[in-house]
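If your schedule permits, I should be very grateful for your opinion on a structural question. Kindly check, if you would, that the fold set down in the tokens agrees with what the sequence suggests. Thank you for your consideration; the sequence and its tokens are set out here:
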Amino acid sequence: MRFSGLAVAAAGLHLSVVAAQDGSQKPLDSNYGPSPKPEGTSGKQPNIIFILTDDQDLHLDSLDYTPLIKKHLIDQGTLYRRHYCTTAVCCPARVSLWTGRLAHNTNVTDVNPPYGGYPKFVSQGLNSNYLPIWLQEAGYNTYYTGKLFNAHTIFNYHLPYAAGWNGSDFLLDPFTYSYLGSRFQRNKEWPRSYKGQHSVDVLAEKAYGFLDDAVKDDRPFFIGIAPVAPHSNVEIASLDGDFDNIEDLVHFTPPIPAARHAHLFPDVKVPRTPHFNPDEPSGANWVRRLKKQSQENVDYNDHFYRQRLRTLQSVDELVDGLFERLGAKGLLENTFIIYTTDNGYHIGQHRLQPGKECGFEEDINIPLIIRGPGVAPGKIAEIVTTHVDLAPTILNLAGAPARADFDGEAIPLREKEIAAAATTRHEHVTVEYWGFAASEGKLFGKDEKRLILNNTYKALRIIGEDYNFYYSVWCTNDHELYDLKTDPYQLHNLLHSDEEAKVPATFLGVSFDKVVSRLDALLFVLKSCKAQTCVRPWHALHPAGNVLNLRDALSERFDYFYGTQQKKVSYDRCELGYIIDSEGPQFETDGLVYRHGARWDEWA
């Protein structure tokens, strides 16, 4: 295989020297009115600090090892325990976060061209139509330091410059994931090497500097801070050559902590949950064919896990430094601090090597913590939230109008708003992925591969008072269904032939097949939804408004509609990106709407 220039595909590191043309467009006009001023804020627009880590887990207990984040954010803010990314890999997740749109609507579905990365972000017209632009229009000064997107490189950072920032200092590929060899590019200056300095420590000083810059002006400010921790360390072995193996191009290691943290947690291991390296296979498609890991493999992955925790200590210190400075400058009373990550991570669950890109909870259910004026301290919220809700949330805080093309809605922040949302907010998450999965740890089996193709799938998570499901359809047309009420570790795929004995006679008081038909119809809408249809998908199926959730849809009067009339989710073939004619029937052309009172023989 010929790899030209920096065309490298691996584990969140996809680089390109393709010169991107600026296909930018003006922001869409909004048909929504201005959002109400958030309760608990002063008349002045609040400042906003957004901290975005890389590949941080929720389910592997990373937050238990960050005492300063706990002190400043969890104890003084709200932890949203059911927050989800919608695409479990870096660039698509970040583009969805900054645009409020799902990946099938941004068409940034990979971390590398032709289907993703910074050049794709630019060519889709998003460089002039994303959050920092809208915040500047709302009167904010905006700053950013750290990783913005993949394939944002030392070769293309000015083709064009990332728009919307009053001040910026970006990590650039191919050095983004080199903890001791990073390169940053400030404003419109040349990239600068920080070889020998720890990347997160360098970034912390840049973040503090932007805070100093921000307070010099009377305008409200937004500061984005994006450390690469705890992503794996990746070093480029070669920039050009003929290679049959990606190992010849890039070298993966566990993340590298700062020297002062390298001795910590010597005996800590990956949590030994029931789905950690299980005796029996689980999942579907290629995941179900994984072999049980050897003890040598498990020991190495425990080391990988410790390195992640050690590397996060620098982020913990960065957060502490921010709060020290915010307090000294008298800014805490009017500043919101949002802490999250782009996607989650797995190590050993379902026999998986370290990585992400799957639809399991470890990969999609991720940390979100918000602290600020009026936010109740020490609270845990159980409402469903997603990355496409964050841009609407931030614009709401800024007092700016919502966007007509948002696929999400603002997250309730105050205690009484969260309580009200428990009965009114959407209960679903759209999950989608295209392309490959990557193993970032050490490869132990002779047949083991770094990259696994045919990892394209569409899925949904739906969480109600008495149900909790994950349903997915792969591009191979394999199906998955987990009942997380009875199987929280997703060990038993109820749609796999090997698990038939575990299929219950009834689900939620109806037959198993009836529940599956409703979940498939909901996914049928979500896999190609746009704007408010993504927020209120049941309304697309039942425009009369008599179905608001899964429980409503299970009424027997809809059995024929869901069981016989509605087309099913399927793929025509596997592709590495969003190619519409590979994705089977679409709701816009092939789906049905339930018409109350209509005779079935009148349907065309």
Q: What stands out?
A: The chain has 16 helices and 26 strands. The first helix runs from residue 67 to 74. Residues 12-21+44-248+295-340+356-431 form a domain with the Alkaline Phosphatase, subunit A fold (CATH 3.40.720.10). Residues 1-37, 597-604 have pLDDT under 50 and may be disordered.
